[in-house]
Amino acid sequence: MIKVALIGAGKMGISHLAILGAHPDVEVVGVADTTKMVTEVLSKYTNFQCFSDYNKMIEEERPDAVVVAVPTKYHASLVARLLNEGIHVFVEKPFCLTANDGIELTKIATEKNLVNQVGYHNKFIGTFTEAKKLIDQGAIGEILHFSGDMNGPVVIKQKQSNWRSKPEEGGGCLMDYAAHLIDLINYLVAPISNVQGAILKSFYSGAVEDSVFSLLETENHISGVINVNWSDETYRKMSTQVTIIGSQGKIIVDATELKVYLKQDIADPNYTRGWNIKHINDFSEEVDFYLRGEEYSAQMDHFIKAVQQKVPNHINNFESAAQTDYVIDLIRNYNN
After folding, report:
1. Which pLDDT band holds residue 170 (cuts at 50, 70, 90)?
2. How far apart are CA 212 and CA 178, in angstroms?
3. Of 69, 79, 142, 178, which one is least surrounded by beta carbons within 10 A?
4. How many CA atoms within 13 Å lie on the side-chain side of 96?
5. Residue 214, Cα to own-chain centre: how many angstroms?
6. Measured between alpha carbons, how far is 92 from 63 in angstroms, rounded to an integer?
7. What is the pTM of this model?
8. CA–centroid distance for 292 within its chain
């Protein structure tokens, strides 16, 4: 059994806790949160040991791994503390407030040979992983251009002050939502290395942006655009779609559907020339505990297996997350 502790029992923290609590190879040895109401409820209705001070939890319980689900402004110092204690770390996205912080944490994790993962769950959604497989196989030929869209009704009126409205805490559409899309493009296409244009626009928020529009270029000179708007109430929830145009075809993919247009037949018998439409059910893998989508359980299961040395630590590691932070820095600096 892997001894795992959780720091931060907010929305994502509680989700991770439910998944960890049901995992057959995990013993949850502690939950730390500064909100007394949260720890009192967990203490009363669960068997989890709760702490108001994560330092005390680490000292008393000595976990093998810790899941960090606190605001981004605390990530750099908290994750560094855990790594220096020799603890494997899963941390929620975005990784850090700056790319330099992420690079430093990557160095520490590498030097200490510790498993490290950041919660970019899209890489565990079957439609996106299938799209990646087709691209790597050369099914659509040489990639010529990409576009990414992410829209939904997160901020649709004047917001009161909370972490999402504070840039110093990792708030704003760029860090909170566009980060997912940037990370996905880095994965599907190639790492983004250049920002050729960017507009950060506010509709309802005061100190942060509600939308991100940017013209990007990857390290191998593939051009693309992203459009991210968390103030679009025509959507029921946030929706992510990536379109990739190649010399031999086209891929349009979101979390539920994969559309592939091929100019010629490929070796894979599941695809033919012309349009091919596949549903997420064609690719979903069974998980032990389903919560908010199988991808959340799948990413945590991958982390635990990496700690057990059953799989390599290559998906959503600190290095790839720091690349995403780097692009966020490029976009933000373009506007300054």
Report:
1. confident
2. 7
3. 142
4. 24
5. 19
6. 18
7. 0.94
8. 14
